[in-house]
Design a protein that fits this description.
The structure is a single chain. The protein has 198 residues and is an alpha/beta fold. It has one domain: Carbon-nitrogen hydrolase (Nitrilase/N-carbamoyl-D-aminoacid amidohydrolase). Helix content is 24%, strand content 22%. The strands form two sheets. It has a five-stranded mixed beta sheet with strand order 1-2-3-4-5. Strands 6-7-8 form a three-stranded mixed beta sheet, with no helix packed on it.
Length: 198
C-alpha cells in the first residue's frame, strides 16, 4: 500500500573567512531541526559531517568523536522532542580509526545504528583492508539498511554515489528510500540510481 512520509533535508555553510566551532555547528543543526519540525517530518537528514563544517582541521581525527557523543546526544534530544527520525552524519573515532558515518536516530532519540561511508574521496576499488583515505578516514565495510516505522531506509554518503554496486545492494536488502547526506549534489547520478533500483 502506498505511504506518504515527510522528509526534511538541510544544509548550512558559513562565510569562508569565518571559521566555526563544533559547538556552533551543533547549535545550528539543532535550530535547523526545530525549523523543520514545524512541518512534522518523519525523517530529518543533516549535512555530511556537519559538526566539522568550516572548523579548522587538517585531519579528520582532529574533529572525530566517539559515538555516543555530545553531538549525537544533542540531536537525540531533538529527535525525542519532535518525534522524528534524524540522520546525524559526523566523523566517528573507533579506537585508532576514524570513519565518516551517518548515525541513525529513531523517534525516541535512540541510536539504531550507523552507516560508515564505504568510498571516502579518492578511493578506487579494490581497497586493501584497513586502508586510510580522505584526511585519515577509513572506509566503511558495507551497505546497511535500517528499519523505521514507515519502512526500510538505506544511507549512502557523498562519494558513494559513484559506485552502483552499493546502491543495488541496498535494493537487495529491501531499502525503500535512500538518504544521501553529501558535500555535493551528485547531479543526475542519484536519479539514475533511483531509476535503476526502483
Amino acid at each position: 500500500m502506498p505511504r506518504k512520509i515527510w522528509v526534511a533535508t538541510s544544509c548550512f555553510r558559513a562565510a569562508p573567512d569565518q571559521p566555526r566551532t563544533v559547538e556552533q555547528n551543533v547549535r545550528r543543526a539543532e535550530e535547523l531541526v526545530d525549523q523543520a519540525a514545524v512541518y512534522q517530518p518523519d525523517l530529518i537528514c543533516l549535512p555530511e559531517t556537519f559538526p566539522s563544517i568550516q572548523v579548522p582541521h587538517q585531519a579528520a581525527r582532529e574533529v572525530a568523536q566517539e559515538v555516543p557523543v555530545p553531538v549525537a546526544e544533542a540531536l537525540a534530544r531533538k529527535a525525542r522532542q519532535h518525534q522524528a527520525y534524524v540522520v546525524c552524519p559526523l566523523f566517528e573515532r573507533r579506537g585508532d580509526r576514524v570513519y565518516n558515518v551517518a548515525v541513525q536516530l529513531d523517534r525516541e532519540g535512540r541510536i539504531v545504528g550507523a552507516y560508515g561511508k564505504v568510498h571516502p574521496v579518492g578511493s578506487q576499488p579494490p581497497l586493501e583492508p584497513g586502508a586510510v583515505l580522505e584526511r585519515g578516514v577509513t572506509p566503511g565495510r558495507e551497505a546497511k539498511v535500517f528499519e523505521t516505522d514507515f519502512g526500510k531506509i538505506g544511507i549512502m554518503i557523498c562519494f558513494d554515489s559513484n559506485w552502483p554496486g552499493e546502491w543495488a545492494e541496498l535494493k537487495r536488502r529491501g531499502a525503500e528510500l535512500v538518504v544521501f547526506p553529501s558535500a555535493y549534489e551528485a547531479g543526475r547520478k542519484l536519479f539514475a540510481h533511483a531509476w535503476n533500483n526502483k
